[in-house]
Amino acid sequence: QLTATTARSAGGAPAPLPMPTAATAGTTGSAKKQKTVTQNLAEAPPALRDLYHAVADHLQAAGDDVQVKTTDLYIAFRRLKNFACVELRNQIGKVLVFVKVDPDAVTLEPGFTRDVRGIGHYGTGDLEITIQSMADLEKAKPIFDNAYQNG
Fold first, then answer.
1. CA spacing 20 to 30 A to 43: which of 11, 13, 16, 137?
2. Residue 134, Cβ neighbours under 10 Å: how many?
3. Nearest Cα to 97, choosing from 72, 67, 131?
4. Long-range contacts of range 54-62, CB-CB < 8 Å, 24 or more positions apart?
5. Residue 6 has pLDDT above 90, yes or no
6. CA pair distance 93, 132, nearest whole angstrom
7. How many CB atoms neighbour CB 89 within 10 A?
8. Mean pLDDT of the residues in the chain
9. What is the mean pLDDT of the segment spanning 88-93?
10. Calpha distance 85→99 (Å, rounded)
11. Which domains, ranges and CATH numbers included, belong to the chain?
12. What pLDDT, on the 0 to 100 scale, is given for residue 3?
C-alpha cells in the first residue's frame, strides 16, 4: 500500500517524495504488467464473479464497522486493520482469501487452507484460503468470522 509522505530537506521544509507512476508501479525491467484486481473481476467467468461476490458479501456482513478498500492487486476488508485480503485468479478459477488467523490455530487442509507465513504474497494475513465453490465458502465462513473477531 502506497501512501504519500514527506521528508524534511536540509532547510527543514517538507520535500515531496517521488510517487510511483502507473508506468513504473509493479513493473521491473521487462516484466509483464500484472492485471489489477478490478480488471480480473471484470474479466472473470460469471461463476467465479458470483463466488467472489458471495465471499465479499459475507466478509462485509461480519460487522457494521467493515470497510472495503480496493488496491491494484487485492481487495482488503478491514476494521482498524485488514482482516482479510481477496485476490481473483481467473486462469485457475479460484478466489484466494488471505486472513489474519494463526495457521497453527486451524487444521490445514491441502487445496483449501495453507500457511503462507514464509511465502511472499500481496495483502495481509498468514493463512490462505482457496475458494473454488460455494461448499468451500461455507467451510471458510467460521475462519472468516474468526479473522474479523480477532482482526
1. 137
2. 13
3. 131
4. 54/134, 54/137, 55/86, 55/95, 55/97, 55/131, 55/137, 55/140, 56/86, 58/137, 58/141, 58/144, 59/84, 59/86, 59/144, 59/148, 62/144, 62/145, 62/148
5. no
6. 7
7. 14
8. 84
9. 93
10. 7
11. 33-150 (3.90.1150.20)
12. 41
Residue 10: pLDDT band by 50, 70, 90 thresholds?
very low
Residue 43 grid coordinates: 474479466
Determine the Cα–Cα distance for residues 125 and 117; give it in Å rounded to an integer.
8
Q: Which of 13-17, 41-45, 117-121 has the lowest mean pLDDT?
A: 13-17
Q: What is the 3-class SS of 62-84, one letter each residue? A: CCCCCEEEECCCCEEEECCCEEE
Residue type, 115: D
| CA–CA gap between residue 93 and residue 65 (Å, rounded) | 30
Core vs surface per residue 43-58: b (16+ CB within 10 A) or e: ebeeebbebbeebbeb
- The set of cell numbers assigned to 34 is 500484472
- Higher local confidence (pLDDT), 5 or 47: 47
